[in-house]
């Protein structure tokens, strides 16, 4: 029961922090949203800062288990079409998973206040994706599926526009179908540009 109450508090905190920010979230209102009084909340967390830290810990684990992490990278695709499938699966997850969307909004708000939020925003909005796809593209180059180039720079060129489209989905959710279609079109354009080519000038399959 205690662990269930703790999880309910964290879920409410994610919702309120993502809408109102850390400073705009009142512990009394947070507690009331899960049927508690303020003093009861402190039986599970010693302070609002402790709720904040626990929430970030939980979301790091949640994101890493479902999206990927340095210890849990996706397999290297065996074909260009598998790259499209991998990319669309990751993007579909990140724009539709409610917890991930709220976490992204929370980090966007709090990155200028909190050092840990700033580091996580940099990781999730830029460096984490680039590092993941650097490994993916290095493996695809070794398999002869992409033309040889600096995999880190190729990954940066690939992930930056996709990240921009994800943020568009956060700002304007009604554009999610359009953004997903544009993401897939970009993936296929990328393959045309970077796909390994045989002597006849056609992309290798």
List the helices and strands and how they pair.
Blueprint: H1 2-20, H2 27-33, H3 38-41, H4 48-66, H5 80-96, H6 98-110, H7 115-142, H8 151-171, H9 176-194
Helix pairs in contact: 1-4, 1-6, 5-9, 6-7, 7-8, 8-9
Protein model, in words:
This protein has helices spanning 2-20, 27-33, 38-41, 48-66, 80-96, 98-110, 115-142, 151-171, 176-194. Helix 8 (151-171) runs antiparallel to helix 9 (176-194). It folds into two domains: 1-58, Arc Repressor Mutant, subunit A (Orthogonal Bundle), CATH 1.10.10.60; 67-205, Tetracycline Repressor, domain 2. The protein is mostly helical. The model is unreliable at 198-205 (pLDDT under 50).
The H/E string reads HHHHHHHHH
Q: What's the end-to-end separation, in Å?
A: 55 Å
How would the global form be characterised?
elongated
Roughly how many Å is the radius of gyration? Answer: 20 Å
CATH class of the largest domain: Mainly Alpha
Which fold name corresponds to the CATH topology of the largest domain? Tetracycline Repressor, domain 2
């Amino acid at each position: 029961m205690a662990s269930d109450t703790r999880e309910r508090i964290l879920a409410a905190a994610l919702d309120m922090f993502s809408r109102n920010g850390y400073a705009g979230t009142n512990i009394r209102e947070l507690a009331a949203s899960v049927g508690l009084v303020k003093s009861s909340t402190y039986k599970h967390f010693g302070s609002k800062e402790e709720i904040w830290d626990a929430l970030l810990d939980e979301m790091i684990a949640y994101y890493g288990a479902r999206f990927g992490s340095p210890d849990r990278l996706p397999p290297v695709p065996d074909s260009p079409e598998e790259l499209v499938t991998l990319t669309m699966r990751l993007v579909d997850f990140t724009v539709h998973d409610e917890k991930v969307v709220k976490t992204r909004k929370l980090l966007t708000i709090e990155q200028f206040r909190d050092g840990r939020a700033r580091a996580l925003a940099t990781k999730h909005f830029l460096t984490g994706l680039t590092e993941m796809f650097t490994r993916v593209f290095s493996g695809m180059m070794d398999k002869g599926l992409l033309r040889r180039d600096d995999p880190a720079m190729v990954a940066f060129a690939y992930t930056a526009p996709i990240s921009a489209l994800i943020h568009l989905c956060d700002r304007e959710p009604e554009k999610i179908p359009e953004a997903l279609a544009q993401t897939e079109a970009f993936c296929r354009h990328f393959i045309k540009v970077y796909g390994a080519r045989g002597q006849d000038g056609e992309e290798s399959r």
